[in-house]
């Protein structure tokens, strides 16, 4: 199935100021993934899907997110040389969301098993279930290692809808972990109270989900945010960081499936990303909900690319 859904990576192109390490930009560092790609490197994987967004009654357009993220990252300058690869894009077509999630999981698991760091470029937040499947299947996830999912998001995405969508992935994950008898901590930073019903808050409490409201994530709340992240990191062994760009204010991130009326400042989101990257526990990361059709001056794509840049360049590898 994966061979049918994974399409080759597009060329990375951008500004060229020179070919020495002093002039290096991302597009000069990224090459297509191959069988003998070196361990420890970052591997980008696209997930072209907005099928889950439509099922969740949102506006389509996120399927174009992966290439927009590549384009925004391509010309960013690298302070130091690094190796990075592009595995291509899992493309969801003909409403085959579940097949796409399984295919993404296979790519993520293979990347992890090769000792590399997968960064998944979404796509709607239905990407999360596929990313999780990859981590759950990988050798690095042993019975003794507890997964922690840190979701930077305005929404819990814990809906109980019978058909999987961008609103259901973390409920699917928690139910799968419970059925397997394994441990997982799900925490969300940036929850918008007006965007989540009381029923969803009740569901979160039922699953022992820890969360921090967007009201408590301002720049002046740095200590509160730091404690929340520190407590999360202390309780888990492997971290899956997922960034739904609708956690950011609409002025910063207008190009998303559901723009935020309030949102969490970019300074806070960057602080959290830096802390997680430096923890030595970050195994996989994805970025979701970029909708280029509604982006203004590529604001959302540029902000997302900067976060990806920070995470990859500051990440401390996990101890295997």
Automatic annotation (TrEMBL):
- State the InterPro entries in the record: HutG, Ureohydrolase, Ureohydrolase_dom_sf, Ureohydrolase_Mn_BS
Quick one: which pathway? Amino-acid degradation; L-histidine degradation into L-glutamate; L-glutamate from N-formimidoyl-L-glutamate (hydrolase route): step 1/1
Which residues of this UniProt protein bind Mn(2+) 1? 125, 153, 155, 157, 244, 246
Q: How is the cofactor bound?
A: Binds 2 manganese ions per subunit.
Its needed co-factors are: Mn(2+)
Give the UniProt record's GO annotations in the biological process aspect: L-histidine catabolic process to glutamate and formamide; putrescine biosynthetic process from arginine, via agmatine
What family name appears in the similarity comment? Belongs to the arginase family.
What this protein is called in its record is Formimidoylglutamase
């Amino acid at each position: 199935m994966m061979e049918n859904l994974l399409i080759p990576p597009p060329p990375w192109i951008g500004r060229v100021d020179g070919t020495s390490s002093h002039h290096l930009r991302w597009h000069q560092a990224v090459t297509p993934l191959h069988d003998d790609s070196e361990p420890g490197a970052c591997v980008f994987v696209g997930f072209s899907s907005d099928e889950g967004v439509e099922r969740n009654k949102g506006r389509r357009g996120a399927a174009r997110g992966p290439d927009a993220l590549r384009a925004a990252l391509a010309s960013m300058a690298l302070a130091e040389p690094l190796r990075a690869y592009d595995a291509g894009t899992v493309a969801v077509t003909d409403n085959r969301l579940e097949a796409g999630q399984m295919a993404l999981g296979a790519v993520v698991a293979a990347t992890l098993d090769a000792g590399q760091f997968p960064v998944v470029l979404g796509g709607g937040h239905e990407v999360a279930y596929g990313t999780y499947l990859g981590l759950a299947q990988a050798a690095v996830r042993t019975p003794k290692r507890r997964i922690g999912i840190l979701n930077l998001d305005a929404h819990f995405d814990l809906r109980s809808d019978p058909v999987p969508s961008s609103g259901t992935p973390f409920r699917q994950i928690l139910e799968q972990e419970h059925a397997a008898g394994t441990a997982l901590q799900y925490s969300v930073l940036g929850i918008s109270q007006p965007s989540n019903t009381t029923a969803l808050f009740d569901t979160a409490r039922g699953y022992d989900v820890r969360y921090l409201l967007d009201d408590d994530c301002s720049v002046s709340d740095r200590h509160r945010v730091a404690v929340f992240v520190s407590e999360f990191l202390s309780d888990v062994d492997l971290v899956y960081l997922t960034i739904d760009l609708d956690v950011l204010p609409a002025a910063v991130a207008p190009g998303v499936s559901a723009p935020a009326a309030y949102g969490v400042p970019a300074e806070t989101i960057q602080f959290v990303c830096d802390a997680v990257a430096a923890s030595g526990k970050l195994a996989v990361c994805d970025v979701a909900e970029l909708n280029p059709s509604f982006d203004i001056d590529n604001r959302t794509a540029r902000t997302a690319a900067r976060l990806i840049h920070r995470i990859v360049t500051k990440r401390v590898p996990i101890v295997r």
